[in-house]
Amino acid sequence: MRFTILPAADAITQLQSGYFDTIIDARSESEYALDHLPNAENWPTLNDAERHHIGTMYVQIGAFEAKKHGAAIAARNIARHIEQHVLDQSKHWKPLIYCWRGGKRSGSLALILSQIGFRVAQLEGGYKAFRAAMLEDMPRRIEKLQFVVVCGTTGSGKTRLLHALARQGEQVLDLEALACHRSSVLGAIPGTPQPSQKHFDMQIWNALRQFDPSRPVYIESESKKVGNVSLSTELIEKMRSSPCLNLELNTTERIALLMEDYDFFVRDTAHFCRRLDTLAELRGKAVVQGWKDCVAAGNIETVVHELLTQHYDPVYLQAMRRNFRHYGQAITIRPANRSREAMQELATHWATTLPLSLCHGATGVAAPLAPTASE
After folding, report:
1. Quick one: 361 exposed, middle or buried, by C-beta within 10 A (0-12, 13-18, 19+)?
2. Of 100, 97, 105, 95, whose CA–CA distance to 126 is shortest?
3. 66-121, pLDDT tens digit by residue?
4. pTM (predicted TM-score)
5. Contact of 165 with 351, CB cutoff 8 Å
6. 120-166: per-residue pLDDT in tens?
7. 37 φψ region: left (φ > 0), alpha (ψ -120 to 50), beta (else)
8. How far apart are CA 345 and CA 347, in angstroms?
9. 38 — phi, psi (to 5°)?
10. Would you please indicate which residues are annotated as catalytic (active-site) residues?
C-alpha cells in the first residue's frame, strides 16, 4: 500500500474534520519543542545529537557515507517507534506524518507504516508548508468571529472573568494563558517560559478553529505584544473594532486580587525589586527606589496602590481610548467582589444578556449583582 502525499491546505481541512487518528512529527526533539502541529506526537527519525552527527559526516566525509549511517540510525529509531506506539493499533489506524519539508525523515516512516498496511498520509512540504497555510488561514477565521472585548484596569479581574465565562460554557480566547505571560512589565511568570512566536501563532490558530462563528468569543483587551510574543495584525484590528465590556472593581479589591495573583512577588521580594527596576526609565530612579524601600519594609500593598494609580491606570486608560474604537460605548459591569464565586455569578448572569445588548448597541452601566465595598 502506497502512502498519500497530502497538500497543507487539505491537511487543514482534514484536521478540522478529525480524520486522522494520530499526528506524528518525525523531526528532532528541539524542532518539535519550537513548534508543532496541534496534538502532534514526537517520533524523531533522528534526534538532535544524531542529526548533528550525520550533518557533520555529510560535510567532512561525504553524502553517500552520511546517508548510509543516517539510514541505519533512522531504521533503529523507526523500529523502536513501531514497537512502542504501533503494535497495538488496528489496521484502520490513520496517521498523518510530517517533518520539516516533507522529505526523508517523514517519508521513511510513512513508507514503512504504509507497507504494514496502514492508511498513511505524508504532509507535502512538511511543517514549513503547514505553517504557511495556517498563517494564510488564520485571517479568514478571525474575520468570521464575533469578539467581545473584556476591558478593565489592572487588577479588575479580567482573567478571572474569562475563566468564569469558560466554565459557563462560553467561548473564550485566553491570550495570556497561551502566551504564559500576564501582559505587563511585571507580567512574567517565574519558572514558566513563554512559547516561541511560532508556537504562539499555532496555539491561537488552533483555538480559533474550534470556535462557533454564530456565538461570541470573549477576549481580553491586549496590546500588540504579550511579553515577548506578538499578536497578528488581523487579530489586533479585529479586537480594536469589536464591542467592549468594562469590568470595574474597587481599588481595595483590586489590590487584594493582585496580591493573590502575583503572590510570587510577595514570597520573593528580591525578585519583585528586580522587576521594579525595569520601570526606572519610565517612572524615574527615585520613585522606583522609593517603591523598593517600601517593599523592603513590608509595605507591598502601598507599592501596589501606587503602581496602579501612578503607572498602570493612566497608561491603560490612555491606550484604551486611543486604540479601541468602541471603548467609549462599553457596558460597565461590576462583580460583587474579586472572589471566584462573584465572578462566576457575574458570568452566569450576563453570559446571555450581554451579547444581545451589545448586538443592539446598548451602552452604559450594568448594575452589580450585589453591593460593592466603597472605595
Report:
1. exposed
2. 100
3. 999 999 999 999 999 999 999 999 999 999 999 999 999 999 999 999 999 999 99
4. 0.92
5. yes
6. 999 999 999 999 999 999 999 999 999 999 999 999 999 999 999 99
7. beta
8. 5
9. -55, 130
10. 99
Instruction: Estimate to the nearest angstrom the gap between the alpha carbon of 343 and the chain centroid.
Output: 22
